[in-house]
Amino acid sequence: AQSVSQHNHHVILSEAASLELGCNYSYGGTVNLFWYVQYPGQHLQLLLKYFSGDPLVKGIKGFEAEFIKSKFSFNLRKPSVQWSDTAEYFCALRPHNQGGKLIFGQGTELSVKP
Amino acid sequence: EPEVTQTPSHQVTQMGQEVILRCVPISNHLYFYWYRQILGQKVEFLVSFYNNEISEKSEIFDDQFSVERPDGSNFTLKIRSTKLEDSAMYFCASSPTSSGNTIYFGEGSWLTVV
Q1: B88: which of A43, B36, B57, B105 fits an S-S bond (Cβ 3.0–4.6 Å)?
Q2: What confidence tens digit (pLDDT) does each residue in B23-78 have?
Q3: Residue B97 and residue A51: Cβ atoms within 8 Å?
Q4: For chain A, what percentages of helix, strand and coil (3-state, to nearest 5) are there?
């Protein structure tokens, strides 16, 4: 079965700390991978996506993620977080050539202390 | 930047009542989706819609649910005879194609069934 697992439910960091949010998926075929962010009271916004090519993808606001096929992982990173990064982060996969639906992880709430 | 818009932002309804959630997808997009997120749980796919018909639906999307695009711009989700467990945030989304493109989400409609 297709699934996405995010290891951390709630992460608390101080400003300027480095961030890594784990995401692992279960699917045997080709996938597209996404990280979405949901700021308080706002809609889901795309941070970055991986379709093919360079496994290290850069997104908005200084975020990046690395696709490691052998580990079925797509971890999100940021070298130095800011208070404004406080939000919920969702990893999602879309099986290739299976329509457009996304399969989401359970989300990781990030709280950044000023 | 074009956005997916949803109305209402919050609706409270009595158990057994019918609810219609409305969405205006991005204008040149062809694929439309509904997802839901029960409080504290994952974002779950409900249904995808293309060319005026359902292209895929999840097991959650039973006979209680229906979707339509009545006028070429609005995309609605109808929930007949709501149950307490239908209380959730419902997200509408759209994309230009079914693969190879980002799925854009609306801000969500909070449904509370009492």
Answers
A1: B36
A2: 999 988 999 999 999 988 889 999 999 989 999 999 999 999 999 998 878 999 99
A3: no
A4: 10, 55, 40
Please report, rounded to a whole number, the percentage of residues in chain B having pLDDT higher than 90.
76
- Amino acid residing at B100: G
Selected residues 74-103 of chain B with any CB under 8 Å from a CB in chain A: 91, 95, 97-100, 102-103
What is the C-alpha to C-alpha distance for residues A48 and B1, in angstroms, rounded to an integer? 17
Structural Rg of chain B based on CA atoms: 13
- Residues 6 or more apart whose Cβ sits within 8 Å of residue A16: A80, A81
Q: What is the DSSP letter of B103?
A: P
**Domain at B38, CATH number:** 2.60.40.10
The candidate with the shortest Cα–Cα distance to B70, out of B110, B10, B20, is B20
Q: Which residues of A touch B109 (CB under 8 A)?
A: none
A92 interaction partners in chain B (CB closer than 8 Å)? 43
Tokens of B64: 């209680």
Q: The tokens of A10 are what?
A: 């709630």
